[in-house]
Amino acid sequence: MSQTTAPLLEIEALYAGIDRRDDPVTILRDVAFDIRPGEMVGVVGESGSGKSMTALAVMGLLPAAVSVTSGSVRFDGDDLVAVSQRAMREVRGRRIGMIFQDPMTTLDPVVKVGRQIEEAYRIHHRGASRAAARARAAEVLELVGVPDVSRRMQQYPHQWSGGMRQRAVIAMALVNDPDLLIADEPTTALDATIQAQVLEVLARARSELGVAIMLITHDLGVIAQYADRVIVMYAGQVMESATTAELFDDSRHPYSQALIRSRPALAEPGGRLPAIPGQPPSLDRLPAGCPFAPRCTSTFKSQRCVEEPTAVAASADGRLSACHYRDLQEMS
Ligand SMILES: Nc1ncnc2c1ncn2[C@@H]1O[C@H](COP(=O)(O)OP(=O)(O)OP(=O)(O)O)[C@@H](O)[C@H]1O
Ligand SMILES: [Mg+2]
Questions:
Q1: Which of 20, 144, 268, 311 is deepest in the core (most CB within 10 A)?
Q2: How far apart are CA 19 and CA 67, in angstroms?
Q3: Cα–Cα distance, 308 to 288 (Å, whole number)
Q4: What letter does residue 92 receive in the DSSP assignment?
Q5: Residue 122, H or E segment
Q6: Residue to mutate (ligand 1; options 25, 26, 27; most atoms within 8 A of CB)
Q7: What is the pLDDT of residues 73-84, one digit of tens each?
Q8: Within 13 Å and on the Cβ side, how many CA atoms surround 330?
Q9: Residue 320: pLDDT above 50?
Q10: CA-to-CA distance for 160 and 153, rounded, in angstroms?
Q11: Direct distance between the N- and C-terminal alpha carbons of the chain, in angstroms, rounded to an integer
């Protein structure tokens, strides 16, 4: 994908938090990255790093206690942080599709699968007939590789296997032909063989429909195989932003390096990130400096890391990292 294509999604200086008067908590801190049309961008980081909150902020679906406090989320020219609820409803589901982290809650157990996908279409195509909606639902179910579509559409979710249900969830997210699909851990609940099939479905949707994908995952193997670029998050901040090749060959942040070092063998499919020694900090007790400093084993680590807050900036050779010593970091 050309670096000169205008971004489809442009997140800038995004902060989100819980506004408790006595005890405010910042959940996203200065998050910034973009996604170009048709690009597959991976978002990776340990549990609690803010991956889902970033996705929900884009969708305008943050939990009630959490709100965006500053920054912008430009999507095709509009700032989604500032648009009306009504305009947001038009974007959500039509221009941006989302696969939520807990996919089994997406399908209604008492409504036939075909009907659910038809309804997702008709919400955004008010004038469409039942027949047109049915035809569109069948078309996307075929695209995601569901066999025997007309019979399957008449079944309830419990009659579908986990992998097939996840295909239905993807079909629902694609039914309105969105420009961007946000997939939050779309395969975590599935076993390894099925995971690979579902990821192939996403890859095919991307190549056949040209949809851009934000792929949130714990699994660096998935990133390595499918993503064009990677955003590495930690404690609500972006630590590094790189192409997939740059990240794996020559990562520039000690946190990314630790993730890659602690990655299970490639032969071990579907491995979640194994522990890096120590724990991510609690967001209400963040260290003053770099949030990763307490666990950082870089030889460059200094008092500055403990004291001075970090932000993503370009190194001399143009790589984006939040490490104070970005110009000295190179994977040995
Ligand atoms: N409903 C909520 N209300 C308030 N704070 C929340 C809520 N859900 C999560 N958080 C906080 O937001 C922070 C970021 O959480 P988030 O769910 O984005 O992490 P994540 O990177 O998606 O983790 P995981 O890999 O476990 O899905 C966490 O520290 C968590 O404490
Ligand atoms: Mg999450």
A1: 144
A2: 8
A3: 7
A4: B
A5: helix 113-124
A6: 27
A7: 999 989 999 999
A8: 6
A9: yes
A10: 10
A11: 29
